[in-house]
Design goal:
By secondary structure, the chain is α/β, with parallel strands linked by helices. The chain has one domain: Alpha-Beta Complex (Spore Coat Polysaccharide Biosynthesis Protein SpsA, Chain A). Helices cover about 35% and strands about 25% of the residues. It contains seven helices and eleven strands. Strands 5-4-1-6-10-7-11 form a seven-stranded mixed beta sheet, sandwiched between helices. Helix 5 packs across helix 6. The longest helix is centred in the first third of the chain and has 15 residues. It is globular and about 55 Å long. It starts with a strand and ends in a 9-residue tail after the last helix.
Length: about 240
């Protein structure tokens, strides 16, 4: 009988239109390597991840394999050599790419960790802690509390309420789920034509609870030119001292 595996689905199939670049943002350079190179590295270093499914644009699969994955595997002596990275063709939007990744999983699977390909600032320890929590809670995401006052506004831009920020969390990835839970949530999402901005939303809509674990403020998603500027500052001090709480 095969042992159930923990699998990462890294979604990197976006066009990156907000980045105002002809090259998809995941392939832009950060500290002499593509952003996606930095994102993959901690997942390869994490001994609790047994396989990585990488969703990229179809036209970039071969290039990604030759210029990012193979050099990364050759350059670093990762301790878990049993890990595999499989490139698949992503969908036209994020939710579809995740679903294609779920379809590509070879059972049995235990925990599925879903991560944005343009969030390079996570660590192997964070990934492991997330997996261990998910084994108990079934659905766990990373999140951080907003630091600014949160205002609710109407369609004309006028404030209608001030929201208690102690009750707010800004969702990050990675997000981790039991395989059965996230597969069911995505199947229901497709059946009911639910458009979700993250995978936790689909799990919520399926009636299941999702736990929010402490994320890190440096775990930014590189989406705009301003984000790329910030990331160049973060990479200079990376990795940070890790909090095990």
């Amino acid at each position: 009988m095969k042992r159930a595996k923990n699998i990462a689905i890294i979604v990197a199939a976006g066009k990156g239109e907000r980045m105002q670049s002809n090259l998809p943002k995941q392939f832009l350079m950060l500290n002499n390597h593509p952003i996606l190179w930095h994102t993959l590295k901690p997942f390869l270093e994490c001994s609790d991840i047994h396989e990585i499914i990488l969703a990229v644009p179809k036209l970039y699969i071969e290039d990604c394999q030759n210029t990012i994955i193979q050099p990364l595997l050759n350059h670093y002596p990762f301790t878990n050599h049993a890990q595999k990275i499989r490139c698949i063709s992503g969908g036209d939007y994020r939710q579809e790419s995740v679903y294609l990744g779920l379809q590509a999983i070879e059972k049995p699977a235990s925990v599925v960790v879903i991560h944005d390909g343009v969030r390079p600032f996570v660590t192997p320890k964070q990934i492991s802690l997330l997996i261990h929590q998910t084994q108990k809670k079934k659905a766990v995401i990373l999140g951080i509390a907003p630091r600014d006052t949160i205002k609710k506004v109407d369609n004309n831009g006028y404030i209608t309420a001030t929201i208690d920020r102690n009750l707010m969390q800004m969702a990050q990835t990675p997000q981790a789920f039991s395989y059965e839970l996230i597969r069911t949530a995505h199947d229901l999402g497709r059946q009911n034509k639910i458009e979700a901005t993250d995978d936790a939303m689909l799990v919520e809509r399926s009636g299941q609870k999702v736990f929010v674990a402490p994320g890190h403020p440096l775990n930014i998603k590189i989406t705009t030119p301003e984000d790329l500027i910030l990331s160049k500052g973060i990479i200079e001090a990376w990795p940070p001292e890790e909090n095990t709480n």
